[in-house]
């Protein structure tokens, strides 16, 4: 998560994710809005009329990052509409450098509708990988919790089985890295992804790519990005 996120919010999000939970839609949307504002990529109808761009002094003139001392202040941060900054409807920076990637959000069509209120999405990528391949990766995944290093027995295996390459400390399995948990998530994903894909297909921004590994998928992604945006 970006360091621009308010400290208390960042801690709450990281602890939720580490526990295998899902971060609330309101919190994610507020974090996205806050991040884009801090970078000058999303701005409001400020009386000055200045357009913030990455090539200008927008980073210096943007609102300072919000920080919260308690849950009450954080609740106030979440309570207002995600796009509200006090000057009316937010607008989008047209600078080509103002580009970003959202990974894993939105997950549902209602989330996509709410995201549309903050920022228009010009490309939605759906990566298609067989379930059997995904299950193999999950079953072979091991992590070094203190550093966050991730290993996999089918590729990028540790030099010594069960041990971190750098510290030699024991590796662990994530509590949610089980076939039962993932198959339940997969079923839920299948139920919610079709309306989401239809949402972006109607907007003409959906692009689907098939592949078995990052080595196969990444070049396809880069070629498509270059075709669309370069």
UniProtKB/TrEMBL annotation:
One Pfam family, short name: ADK_lid
Annotated transmembrane regions: none
This protein's UniProt keywords: Kinase, Nucleotide-binding, Transferase
Gene Ontology MF terms: AMP kinase activity; ATP binding
Family per record: Belongs to the adenylate kinase family.
Name of protein: Adenylate kinase active site lid domain-containing protein
Domain Adenylate kinase active site lid residue range list: 141-176
SUPFAM superfamilies assigned to the protein according to its UniProt record, in alphabetical order: P-loop containing nucleoside triphosphate hydrolases
Compositionally biased region (Basic and acidic residues): 161-177
Natural source organism: Chaetomium globosum (strain ATCC 6205 / CBS 148.51 / DSM 1962 / NBRC 6347 / NRRL 1970) (Soil fungus)
Renumbered residue ranges of the record's region Disordered: 154-177
PROSITE patterns, sorted: ADENYLATE_KINASE
């Amino acid at each position: 998560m970006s360091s621009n996120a308010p400290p208390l919010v960042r801690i709450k999000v990281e602890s939720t994710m580490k526990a295998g939970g899902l971060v609330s839609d309101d919190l994610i949307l507020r974090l996205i809005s806050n991040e884009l504002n801090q970078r000058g990529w999303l701005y409001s109808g400020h009386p000055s009329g200045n357009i913030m761009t990455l090539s200008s002094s927008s980073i210096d003139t943007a609102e300072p990052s919000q920080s919260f001392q308690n849950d009450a202040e954080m609740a106030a941060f979440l309570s207002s509409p995600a796009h509200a900054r006090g000057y009316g409807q937010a607008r989008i920076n047209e600078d080509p450098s103002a580009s970003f990637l959202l990974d894993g959000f939105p997950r549902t069509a209602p989330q996509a509708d709410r995201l549309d209120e903050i920022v228009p999405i010009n490309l939605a990528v759906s990566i298609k990988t067989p379930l059997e391949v995904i299950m193999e990766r999950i079953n072979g995944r091991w992590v070094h919790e203190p550093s966050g290093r991730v290993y996999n027995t089918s590729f990028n295996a540790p030099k010594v089985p069960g041990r971190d390459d750098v510290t030699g400390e024991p590796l662990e399995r994530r509590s949610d890295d089980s076939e039962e948990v993932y198959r339940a998530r997969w079923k839920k994903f299948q139920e919610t992804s079709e309306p989401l894909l239809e949402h972006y297909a109607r907007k003409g921004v959906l692009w689907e790519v098939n592949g078995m590994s990052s080595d196969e998928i990444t070049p396809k992604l880069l070629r498509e990005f270059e075709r669309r945006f370069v």
